[in-house]
Design goal:
There is one protein chain. This protein is of the alpha+beta class. It has a domain at about 225-374: 3-Layer(aba) Sandwich (Peroxisomal Thiolase, Chain A, domain 1), CATH 3.40.47. It contains 10 helices and 13 strands. The protein has helices spanning about 20-40, 40-45, 55-65, 95-110, 135-145, 160-175, 265-285, 305-315, 325-330, 335-345; strands at about 5-15, 15-20, 65-70, 120-125, 150-155, 180-185, 205-215, 225-230, 240, 260, 295-300, 355-360, 365-374. The strands form 3 sheets. It has a 9-stranded mixed beta sheet, with helices on both faces. It has a two-stranded antiparallel sheet with strand order 2-3. Strands 9-10 form a two-stranded antiparallel ribbon. A hairpin with a 3-residue loop joins strand 12 and strand 13 (about 365-374). Helix 1 crosses helix 3 (about 55-65), helix 4 packs across helix 5 (about 135-145) and helix 7 runs parallel beside helix 8 (about 305-315). The radius of gyration is 21 Å and the shape is globular.
């Protein structure tokens, strides 16, 4: 017999450091001037492209982003470095990613009224993990004293919802009483701060959710998971090529193509209709229409994407209450964005209210959950 599954707690950890658009642009423009001066001859010869200036207004208009949080601010704005300084830790020390995962996990457990003894599995699901093994999930499992098992999984910006899908399956099948799903999005090391088109996109954060059997849920805010839905379709339009084989390539292992890069216009054009169609089909499987949805917790990549997707679904502009935006403060936090929106905008819903939690991104990948407040 399939058990009924709920989300009973959510946790959000936010870094203390902030980079505003104005700070980011001042650093980038200074770097661009330096680059252009150092490469003036090649630029004049047409063999190297000059780096154009940016502006805070351009960033906000293109994305809706006004600032972003960052795990370590030192170095990120230094024109001689253009990447954060994150000191290496010894094997015996808690990893940087494990540290932020642990913070979010503790908050989610508290919200769910759960102790580590109540959890049977830990999933760390995010865009990047800082190492191949041992798994960050197992490290966090050990820190919390959780029995059972843990594993890492990567599905870029859809990782959070895909992780919840796996948790739902474990609980529904009876293989776990409760699963802790954590999204420690330490993205800043993969940002190309010298690229005008992408240097402003990402911020760091960590989120976590507790997925458990309805029978054991006793928190203040419980959401039934009515169903999950996922789809992937291969695309090269969003890539990050850094990996363990980079060491064996006779190229710069930290070159621009090894960092995050995308064909932004193509992504916008292709992903928006894919996401809208995916969500509409998911709702239809429950005989719901978009008009039946009280709240949309959408992936927080770009405000224009969210506005367009919501309008395609509703046939009108969504209100900020219906489809809350958090990317203005948090920027694109990879898979964590939709969970941040959920964490900050779920307590006001009434019993019976229906919501959609959806993330989409590289792969392409789209994951969604239709949930209902108990």
């Amino acid at each position: 017999m399939t058990k009924k599954v709920v989300i009973s707690g959510v946790g959000l950890w936010t870094p203390e450091h902030v980079i505003t658009n104005e700070e980011l642009v001042a650093s980038y423009n200074a770097y661009a001037d330096k680059f252009n001066a150092e490469n003036a001859a090649q630029i004049d010869a047409g063999t190297v492209a000059a780096k154009p200036h940016s502006s805070a207004e351009f960033i906000e208009k293109a994305s809706g982003i006004k600032q972003r949080y960052i795990y370590r601010k030192e170095g990120a704005l230094d024109v001689e470095r253009m990447r954060p300084v994150i000191p290496e830790r010894q094997d015996e020390e808690l990893s940087h990613q494990g540290e932020i995962a642990l913070e979010a996990a503790k908050k989610a457990l508290a919200a769910a009224n759960k102790s580590p003894e109540d959890i049977d599995a830990v999933i760390v699901s995010c865009a990047y993990t800082q190492r191949a093994y041992p798994a960050i999930a197992i490290e966090v499992q050990n820190q919390l004293g959780i029995k059972g098992f843990g594993f890492d999984m990567l599905v870029a910006c859809s990782a959070a919802t895909f992780g919840m899908h796996r948790a739902w399956e474990m609980v529904a099948s009876g293989n776990a009483r409760a699963v802790l799903v954590i999204n420690p999005e330490l993205v800043s090391p993969q940002v190309n701060y010298t690229d005008r088109d992408s240097h402003f996109i990402f911020g760091d954060v960590a989120t976590a959710t507790v997925v458990e059997s309805e029978d054991t849920a006793n928190s203040d805010h419980v959401f039934s998971v009515l169903s999950t839905k996922a789809v992937t379709s291969f695309s090269n339009n969003i890539r990050s090529n850094f990996g363990y084989i980079s060491r064996a390539h006779d190229v710069d292992p930290y070159g621009e193509d090894k960092l995050f890069h995308q064909a932004g216009r193509k992504v916008f054009k292709e992903v928006c209709p894919m996401a809208a169609d995916h969500i509409e089909a998911h709702l239809a499987s429950h005989s719901f229409t978009p008009a039946d949805v009280r709240r949309w917790w959408l992936h927080q990549a770009n405000i224009n994407m969210n506005l367009l997707i919501a309008k395609r679904l509703l046939g009108r502009d969504a209100t900020a209450d219906e489809a809350p935006i958090v990317l203005d403060r948090y920027a694109n936090t990879a898979s964590a964005g939709s969970v941040i929106a959920f964490a900050l905008h779920h307590q006001d819903l009434q019993s019976g209210d229906v919501g959609v939690l959806c993330s989409f991104g590289a792969g392409y990948s789209i994951g969604s959950l239709v949930i209902q407040k108990q």
